[in-house]
Amino acid sequence: MTAELQAISNTPGITGLCLHRGAEILHHNLPATYGDAAATDLCHVVSGIFSAYANAERPVTQGYFQYPESGILVVKSARGKNAAAKECFLTFLVSDQNAIQTVLAPARAFLARQVRA
Amino acid sequence: MAIAGTIERTSPITLPRVLERIFDHEQPGLLRLKHKESGRSAEVKIDRGAVQETVFGELNGDQAMKEISQTFPWEYEFVSSDTSITTGRLPAQLTTPSGKRPALKLVGAVKPMMILSGQTGPRAEVSPTVEKAKTPDPTPPEPQVTKPAEAKPASRLMQAKNGPAPRPAAAKPGQAPAAVVQATATPTTSAPQSKAAAVPAPASPPSPLRRMSSLPTAESLADWVADGDEYALRFVIAEDRNIGNVAESEMAYFRADAASLMERASLIGDVLGFSPPSLAALVESERAAAYRRLADGFAGIYSGPGSTVDSMLSIP
After folding, report:
1. Which of A76, B63, B130, B138 has its CA 20 to 30 A from that of B187?
2. pTM, two decimal places
3. Which of A32, A2, A33, A22 is CA-nearest to residue A91?
4. Spans of chain A, pLDDT less than 50
5. What pLDDT score does A117 carry?
6. Which of A33, A58, A95 is the best residue to mutate to test the B interface, defined by the most B CB atoms within 10 Å of its own CB?
7. Which helix (H) or strand (E) covers residue B314, if one does?
8. DSSP-H helix ranges across chain B
9. A95 and B210: CB-CB below 8 Å?
């Protein structure tokens, strides 16, 4: 799993990523400048926001947020057979928007496998 | 939800940043800080966008603030004294002036998505979901109508408490879509320190976005709006003018949705110490929306089924 994530993360324009199930961080390779605490907080906030939209009957599957410093891309797994299971997210730190189109497909494929597993 | 989290020595979230965030809301209240290791606590009273009083043990005023700034880590929580935040009242922008449901024509268009300008590849065709369109609309009753002139802007706190702005519901054949006002979720910024399976991180800091630009104006996007099509509605909502084929009631919806999304994007950015967001996009299975801040308002794209997030980033 880590090798596959690393390969996705190596896409030019991707600075780092977090894999999280709900707010629980499973793996991250964000730049060291941010630290584990920031990665944990990021996953917590992202999952909270997606959950808020889902509760408002807006099941968001992808999100992108652009800041002057960087961009944040979030891809969420489709809901699996176990509806109670928390959904998986890949949250990317993006330095070039051109990378988004490149990572979307492998990210969705990776998450789909996580849901099936 | 309250503004809450942890201030650590190495964290990008600092006390000044927390205070700035609270000031942005222009809500009076109390910032409570707790030093978990020692059990000490501090309080910062905030009103009218400024610190009114600071107490840390026997210290107060600037001396207390200085001592707080030099102590780590803090767990903090801002508790607003504005009752409108805690009552769960929905922001008035979520209703429409006429009381009619926003007639977002685009939602009804179930044709395959077209390629947006700037896209390089073909978009996968999405078949019209006729069966889905015939299913009962789960839309709750229409919201109570409030005139926009009476509307109080929804603060980040209120929006976070009430959940995101409603979406326009999927349209049934021959029927305009309805605005959904169902917002109960409570996202929070306070994060438990769970175990993070960290791998060695790259040594270099994130590089700035290559395609960054200063905020455009509404005027500069007139051509871009005109290039929109029926599958991807483009519009500009600015202080003194609106551009695009969007009715006034629909604009109220987009204003609320954009404000709600930008507030949430700010929450994400705060975690990493980023500046306010310039663009935010969300993709759902049946629709997608992206909003970009302008110098004098915002521009948006509202699209139908089959959208992906990269296709929503064509706003100049």
Report:
1. B138
2. 0.56
3. A22
4. none
5. 64
6. A58
7. none
8. 15-25, 61-69, 83-86, 105-108, 130-134, 156-162, 222-226, 248-272
9. yes
With a CB-CB cutoff of 8 Å, which residues 14-43 of chain A face chain B?
A: 15-16, 23-43
Q: Look at the alpha carbons of A96, A111, B125, B244 in this order and tell me if their dihedral is positive or negative.
A: negative
> Are the Cβ atoms of B187 and A68 closer than 8 angstroms?
no
The 3-class SS string of B1-42 reads CCEEEEECCCCCCCHHHHHHHHHHHCCCEEEEEECCCCCCEE
Mapped onto helix, strand or coil, the DSSP state of residue B195 is: coil
Burial class (CB in 10 A: 0-12, 13-18, 19+), A57: middle
Answer whether A61 sits within 8 Å of B283, measured CB to CB: yes
Q: Residue A80: what pLDDT? A: 59
Q: To which H or E segment does residue A50 belong?
A: helix A35-55
Euclidean distance between CA atoms B72 and B69, whole angstroms: 8
Higher pLDDT, B74 or B205: B74
* Chain A positions in Cβ-Cβ contact with residue B205 (cut-off 8 Å): 31, 33
Q: How far apart are the first and last CA of chain B?
A: 34
Return the closest-CA partner of residue A20 out of A44, A2, A55, A1: A44
Please give the residue that has the higher pLDDT: either B228 or B163: B228
- Predicted pLDDT of residue B25: 64
Q: Answer yes or no: is pLDDT of B281 > 60.
A: yes
Section B203-224 average pLDDT: 61
Closest partner residue to B180 (CB to CB) among A6, A56, A60 is: A56
Contact criterion met (CB < 8 Å) for B309 and A38? no
Q: Answer whether residue B210 shows pLDDT above 50.
A: no
Angle in degrees, CA B229, B231, B233, rounded to 5? 60
Q: Tens of pLDDT along B285-303?
A: 888 999 999 888 899 998 8
- Tens digits of residue pLDDT in B174-195: 333 333 333 333 333 333 344 3
In the sheet that B232-238 helps form, which strands lie side by side, from edge to edge? Answer: A24-28, A14-21, A88-94, A71-76, A60-66, B279-284, B288-294, B297-303, B232-238, B242-243
Query: Mind giving me the DSSP string for A66-103?
Result: E-SS-EEEEEEPPP-S-TTSPPEEEEEEES-THHHHHH
pLDDT in tens, B111-139: 222 223 333 333 333 233 323 333 333 33
